[in-house]
TrEMBL record:
Matches recorded under PANTHER family: BLR1237 PROTEIN, TRICARBOXYLATE-BINDING PROTEIN
Pfam families: TctC
CDD domains, sorted: PBP2_Bug27
Family: Belongs to the UPF0065 (bug) family.
Keyword ATP-binding: no
Keyword terms, alphabetized: Receptor, Signal
TM region positions: none
Organism in which the protein naturally occurs: Roseateles saccharophilus (Pseudomonas saccharophila)
Superkingdom of this protein's organism: Bacteria
Segment forming the signal sequence: 1-25
UniProt-listed SUPFAM superfamilies: Periplasmic binding protein-like II (SSF53850)
Lineage of the organism: Bacteria, Pseudomonadati, Pseudomonadota, Betaproteobacteria, Burkholderiales
Name of this chain's protein: Tripartite-type tricarboxylate transporter receptor subunit TctC
Length: 337
């Protein structure tokens, strides 16, 4: 071998390394994803039913993705803070748990959202739904003989302006449902929106408020414990958790025909997320939601486990936005978030 020339072994190693380098850099090569933990930004505080079910879902989702899926609670501003952050995220590992509030109600009630619910997000899939349930204080039910929706309409009509209804906050599903119930039932209830649904619920239990529309997962243990009296669920059909409880439409007669108010949560990615990553998320989210154990836990909480593809989810959002716009119009609610 001449001095200064590489050995045969060195030359072969160099050629192998060059080939590998070219293969890794060839056009069309897709880097591995996800390559670090994903973050699910949730516009609720910790400890509620939504937080619990999202954490169950995240645990199943990470099995398919092969990376930790962390839940980041960012409550406040009706979900605007969480949505604005995810809409502008470009790291490929930040996702949003969107709700009926962030993607169907806020766009109807606000003219100055810091995000566009349609343009800024790619819907991945619907996770769970939860009907609202109409509940009354135990003492009110006993003393006024309110054991059904018909009873409530009769008693409230005889006591105009003397009964009150609580709700979580202005523009929430429960708030709009309460206003619609007043309007369609032609009754005069004093409406008191609270800063949180938990505070409203506690005052109904304590007797400071007469009734409210509550989310079923949160109200269910209080109903079973006898702390609240349930009159009807506001879903399109009866709940498996309370199969003997009628819907508002069933119990309210012609005046409340078509009455339906439910909450839901779903998974969204920023609209800038690459299509192949969105497809991966859709596949793994559907697989997570198909797990029997997860579905059983959701049912036990009073939630309705969902699933389906991104197209169905996008269609639901469009339908829900139109529905809540009609409810806001019928109820006369004017809230600018």
């Amino acid at each position: 071998m001449r001095p200064g020339l590489p050995s045969r072994r060195s030359l072969l190693l160099w050629l192998a390394g060059t080939a590998a380098s070219r293969a890794g850099a060839q056009p069309g090569a897709v880097p591995a994803w996800p390559n670090r933990p994903l973050r699910l930004v949730l516009p609720f505080g910790a400890g509620g039913a939504a937080d619990f079910v999202v954490r169950l879902f995240a645990a199943e989702l990470q099995r398919g993705l092969g990376q930790p899926v962390l839940v980041d609670n960012q409550p406040g501003a009706h979900g605007n803070i969480a949505c604005a952050e995810v809409a502008g995220a470009s790291d490929g590992h930040t996702l949003l748990i969107g709700t009926v509030g962030t993607h169907a109600i806020n766009p109807v009630l606000s003219r100055r959202l810091p995000y566009d619910a349609v343009r800024d997000f790619a819907p991945i899939g619907l996770i769970a739904g939860a009907p609202l349930v109409l509940v009354v204080n135990v003492g009110v039910a006993r003393s006024l003989g309110v054991r059904s929706v018909a009873d409530l309409l009769r008693v409230a009509a005889a006591r105009p302006g003397r009964m009150n209804i609580a709700s979580g906050d202005n523009g929430s599903p429960a708030y709009l449902a309460g206003e619609l119930f007043k309007r369609l039932g032609q009754i005069d209830l004093l409406h008191y929106p609270y800063r949180s649904v938990a505070s409203a619920r506690q005052d109904v239990i304590a007797g400071n408020m007469d009734l409210m529309f509550d989310d079923l997962p949160s109200a269910l243990p209080r109903i079973k414990a006898g702390k609240l009296v349930a009159l009807a669920v506001a879903g399109a059909r009866r709940s498996p958790s309370l199969p003997d409880l009628p819907t508002v439409e069933e119990a309210g007669g012609e005046a409340l025909k078509g009455f339906e108010a439910s909450a839901w949560v779903g998974l969204f990615a920023p609209a800038s997320q690459p299509p192949e990553q969105i497809a991966r998320l859709q596949h793994d989210a559907a697989a997570a939601l198909a797990q029997p154990g997860l579905r059983e836990q959701m049912n036990a909480l009073g939630l309705q486990p969902q699933g389906g593809g991104a197209r169905d989810f996008a269609a639901l959002i469009a339908t829900e936005t139109a529905k809540w716009a009609r409810i806001a119009q019928l109820s006369g609610v004017k809230v600018d978030r």
